[in-house]
Design goal:
By secondary structure, the chain is of the alpha/beta class. The chain has 11 helices and 14 strands. The protein has 2 domains: 226 residues, Rossmann fold; 68 residues, Alpha-Beta Plaits (2-Layer Sandwich), CATH 3.30.70. The strands form 3 sheets. Strands 6-7-8-3-9-10 form a 6-stranded mixed beta sheet, sandwiched between helices. Strand 1 and strand 2 form a beta hairpin. Magnesium ion binds next to helix 1.
């Protein structure tokens, strides 16, 4: 369905240099309405710089950017910049909140900044609070909020002008596990509402959970940009297996490690886990062999390689 729609974001050959260091090197990608694009990569790879350019808070050096058919240009009278700012909501990776305000005052301030009519502002604020799941915090002082709640307030702020596109820079950074799970649900909800989202994150589990497109960025280059399912399929040519045994675990490990299709055999709690580089027939034969050897197998299960396996294959971290 999405392939029939018109692209909502086009980025072609985007480049940015600070002093003499080129930190975004010819990035090209495009997204369709409703896409959730996860941008992953090591620190300093150029994620924030890319998002800031799309959010129009930083100027690009070269390349073309089109957002909902509006070209990103910086020429007076800046109509295009104004249009793009209406289209995007940018959540930066730091909390630039005014601590002495109440939550509702803070949101009202941003609603005014977006020229939202006074009569509409209460509705807009309530809706943003509801989507961010913090309706009950409306009368609270910002300085009394936890980090997770502040993060949600930032998200509410980004939603205030009802942008079609959300640019979220490491929204889960510094959140505890519960706050992270809750943020995940909010992002899924925003996806259901039809928002197009670009999200940078170090947390691969999150990205894998709610993104349909993945980009891997390293040293300013988008080394991979693909549909999530395709990326895993193309990159990983093995199946993960996990065996749970009743006893004779060490013997089973020795037996498995002698099999040519078995690689990276490890203990995963009390179970054995490994990559199986072979066909389903061969995997089935391996199970028969194990049974014939009198191993008492509780379970023999096939798992899907995940984004972490893909990421490790494409990036390697050189120690400084
Ligand atoms: N305003 C700036 N001036 C100079 N260098 C910068 C500036 N902003 C970012 N950089 C550099 O650009 C590179 C990419 O940074 P960034 O986009 O923040 O990466 P990421 O978000 O992937 O960690 C880093 O080497 C960083 O030091
Ligand atoms: Mg960053």
């Amino acid at each position: 369905m999405e392939e029939e729609c018109q692209e909502i974001i086009n980025v072609t050959d985007l480049t940015k240099t600070f002093q003499s260091q080129t930190v975004v090197k010819g990035i090209t990608f495009s997204l369709y309405p409703g896409d959730v694009f996860g941008l992953i990569g090591p620190n300093g790879a150029g994620k924030t710089t890319t998002l800031r350019i799309l959010a129009t808070v930083l100027k690009k050096d070269s390349g073309d950017v089109k957002i909902d058919n509006v070209p990103l240009t910086y020429t007076a009278p800046y109509d295009n910049l104004r249009k793009i700012r209406q289209l995007v909501g940018f959540m930066p990776d730091f909390l630039g909140l005014y601590d002495d305000l109440l939550v509702k005052e803070y949101l009202d301030f941003f609603a005014r900044a977006f020229f939202i009519d006074e009569s509409l502002r209460p509705f807009v604020i309530d809706e943003a609070l509801e989507t961010a799941g913090i309706t009950e915090l409306k009368e609270k002082e910002i300085e009394k909020l936890s980090r997770g709640m502040k993060q949600r307030l930032l998200l509410a702020r980004v939603l205030i002008h009802n942008p079609k596109i959300l640019l979220l820079d490491e929204p889960a950074a510094g959140l505890d596990p519960r706050a992270r799970v809750e943020l995940r649900d909010i992002i899924k909800d925003l996806r259901k509402k039809g928002k197009t989202i670009i999200i940078s994150s170090h947390i691969l589990e999150d990205i894998e959970d709610f993104c349909n497109r993945i980009g891997i960025i390293a040293k300013g280059c988008l080394i991979k940009f693909q549909d999530k399912e395709m990326l895993t399929k193309e990159t990983i040519n093995y199946v993960l297996y996990r065996i749970s045994l009743l006893d004779k675990k060490e013997e089973a490990r020795t037996f498995l490690s002698s099999q040519k299709q078995v690689k990276n055999l490890i203990w995963d709690n009390e179970d054995l886990s490994f990559e199986f580089h072979g066909s389903d027939n061969e995997a089935s034969q391996l199970l028969k062999d194990l049974i014939n050897q009198d191993f008492n197998i509780v379970s023999y299960s096939k798992g899907k390689p995940n984004l972490e396996n893909v990421y490790m294959k494409y990036t390697y971290i050189k120690s400084a």
